[in-house]
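Structure ticket #2291
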Amino acid sequence: ALGGSQVCMHVSIRHSQPSQTCDMAASLLACALLVLLTGSLAGAQICEKIDACSCKLDNDTVVSLHSLANTGGSYGFKAEREGNTYWYNPCFGFDQGNGCDDVSVCSHFQGQPAADTYRLGNVDPDSVTVINRTTVAFKYTSRITYDSEVYVTCDEEATEPKFLSLGTDPDRSSRYIFSLTSADVCARHAQCKQIDRCSCAMDDGSGNLNLHTFSRPEKPWEITLGAEVTVYYNPCVGVGANISDTCKDASVCLKEEGGIFTNMGSVRSGVFATDESGDVILAYRNLQDETKTANVTLVCDPGARVEPVFESASINEGHFSVTMKSVCACAGSCMFPARTCEGADSCSCKMSDGSGTVSLHALDNPAAAFKDVGTSSGVQYTFYYNPCSGISVGLDECTDVSACAYNHVARTYNALGLVQPDKFTPDQDKLIIAYSDEETRTSYNLTLVCDVTANNPKFSFTGTRLQNAYDFMLTTKCACADECQANVVK
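Resolution: structure written out below.
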C-alpha cells in the first residue's frame, strides 16, 4: 500500500490475543491504541446499522456520529502520519483532489503529486462491529483498491474529538486504521428530534411521534387530580381562551379551587427530550414565570387508538407531571390528515393543523438579499433571494423579482421567479414554496427548514431538477409556525 506503515508487529485486527511487541519505529501511542482496540473479537457483536453514521446496540441505545459530521460538503477530520495525509467525514460525502469524490475517507501519500488522492472508503459503511464496551468499528470499502476502519471510542471526559491515523492492518496492508475519540459518540437512547411543537422524529429511523391528532384548543383534554383540581392539556396550539384568558397561550393549564387558573407550560416552550430509560418527554415551562413547569411522558400504547390515557398525574412545588399513553406515542404509528398552508401574502401562510403561521417577514431585506454560490451544469452561478418584496440585481434582467442567478461565464443575470409564490406546500417537517416566471420560463422551489435555534438564517443552493428549474434551502427559526411575526423575531 502507498505510504502506510504497519503499526505493531504481529498485531492483527482478527487476532484473538494481540502481541505485546510493538514496532519501535512506529508511534508508541498509535501502537498502544491499536492493541487496546483490537483485543479479543471472538463472537463480535454487530451494531445494527441505522444509517451511514449511526447504529443500534442490543440494549436499544444508539451510537451516532451525526453531531461530528461536516454538513457543508467538506471533510470533518484530518490526520497526518509519516508524511501522509488522511481526511474523514462521517454521514456525508466530500470531494478531495482528483481521486476522491463523494467519499468518507480519503488519503494523500507522501511523494505523490498534490492533486493525487486515493479513496479509502465510501460514505455508507459496510458494517459496524462492537469492539468492546466503549468502542465500535465503522468498516468502509472503496470498491477499488483500499479500504479502512474507523474505531469510534466513547470518552465522557473528552473535551473535543480526536482523530488519529493508526497505520495499516498488519494482515492486510491495503486496509487503513483510524481512531476517533469523543464524548459525543457515547451510546445513548434514541433521541426524538423536534419537528414542531407536538411532533418529533426518532433519530434511529423508527419514525415520528405525532400528537397533532389530539390538538383541540376549544375542548382540551382534562386530567383530574382531585375534586377541585383539574389540569387542561392541549398540545400544538394551547388551551383556548374559552377556558381561561390566563391560559390562552398555554399547553398545560391548572385550575384550582375557586376557579384560579395557572399557566404551567406555554405552548411555544414545548421541547422533546429523552430520559435515561429511553422514554420521550414533552417538557413545558411558563415563559413568564419559569418556576412553573410541566412534563408529559409519552408511552407507546397501541391499544389507546381513539383517545390518550393519562396516568400518574401529580403536582409538586410548581411542577406538574403526567404519563400519556397513546398509539401516537408509538414511532410511525399515528397519522393525521395532510396539512396545507394557505398563503396569506407573498411570504407567509397559515397551517391548517392550527399550529400557526409561517412568516418570513422578519427576514425581508431587498437591499441585502440572501446569496449563495453554486454550480449547475458545469457553470458557476451566484444566486440571490429575498422573501416578501422584490429585489433588483444587474441591469434590466432581474427587476422586482424574488430570486436571480448570475452566470459567471456568460456574465449575465437571469430572473428565476416572481415575488408572489405559486403555492406553499407542507412536506413532512418542511415547507416548500414554489416560484416561477413565465416570461423567462424558469422556476425554483425554496425548502424551508424549521430550526428554533437558527437565529441566523442559512440560505443555500441545493441543485437543479430540470433545465431552468432550481432548488434552494433556507434554514431558519422563521420556518417554524408562529416563531416569527411581521418584522419581529420572537
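Closing remark: Residues 1-30, 38-43 have pLDDT under 50 and may be disordered.
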